[in-house]
Amino acid sequence: MVLKAVVAQALPLLAASLLAMQAAAPAESASARMTSASAALATGRNAEAAEEFQKVLAIDRTLAAAYAGLGIALGRLGRYPEAVAAFQDGIRVAPHDAALHYNLAVVHQSLERYDEAATEYREAITAKHDFADALSNLAIVEGKLGHFAAVIDACESLLRVNPRSARAHYTKGWALSQLDRWTEAADEYRSALAVDPRYVDASVALGVAYSQLGREEKAIDTLRAAVALEPGRADARVALGASYGNLGRWEQAAAEFEAAIRLDPPSAAAHYNLGRAYAKLARRDAAITAYTDAIRLDRDYAEAHFNLALAYTDGAQHGEAIAHYKEALRVKPDYAAARFNLALALLATGQRAAALDEERALRAIDGNLADQLHRLMAR
User: Fold this and answer.
1) What is the pLDDT of residues 292-319, one digit of tens each?
2) CA–CA separation, 138 vs 120, rounded Å?
3) pLDDT 10s digits, 323-357
4) Degrees (nearest 5) of the Cα angle 144, 145, 151?
5) Which of 1, 150, 171, 354 pairs as cysteine with 242 (C-beta 3.0–4.6 A)?
């Protein structure tokens, strides 16, 4: 049972305060306005802060710190296009101001404009090489872009700045797991836990890594410890159930998946895995219900469609099986097992021409499986 990888959590989307307020001393009237604007920003009076920073800039348009404060206030107010414009105006005044680049990146990140965010985080890091928050967020946006080697590079840079960053070890482990480098991922998760033994995200991820490495008993011990630390973690229960299942301990697996659903009813993964446990326990009707619930929560869950189709096939409900094999193939057209089984279901319902079409399509995906299908159809 393969689980979806644990995703690193982002740092706060907007800086809690101005990161740099080191502009040259402004004129007296601008200075007073800056003091007032900064106080408003610090106490969360963002509309007032924005207005005051605009007044500062009306007096002196060369103050980088005023642009930074204005952008942060506007961002907190959800006025993102204006925030972007403020930071960009500030960068034109102070091209090497790390805070301006950082906060512009944060706004891009909040808008899911990850390429732009990565560019601005890199600019911030160029201006301030030990900028830990920028390095941490850069790792996250590179992960969003699927640039896992870049995530690893950013985490290693962060660890040079702060060798005891549990999050950096965790995020590096996550990136390694995306590259199927599970032994190295496990090393990073253990390093994260050496810094923070109560880091439950790292414990869950380490348990999944042990499972991927075939060390199921170690995975179970690690995941049970994670559940003990945080009993409400549904993902830990799903991972623990998966390890029990991998050892054939399906009653225990089902209990964990049921607990996960009680904790997180919208978890499609929990319902899907529960369906697999019920199927192994010969509880076909319950498996069908669980798979159906998974699909209700995620209609593009190809594996749930496939396993639901298998359950219908077991009950000779070929029409329903065909519908769900087709749904699995809609989501994953190269799903060889689904195409193989669809051809057999079509053959069982007298649709030989359609079955031959599936054989031809399968041959382009998996020639060996297509040969096996051809032999079965020739009988």
Assistant:
1) 999 999 999 999 999 999 999 999 999 9
2) 9
3) 999 999 999 999 999 999 999 999 999 999 999 99
4) 75
5) 1
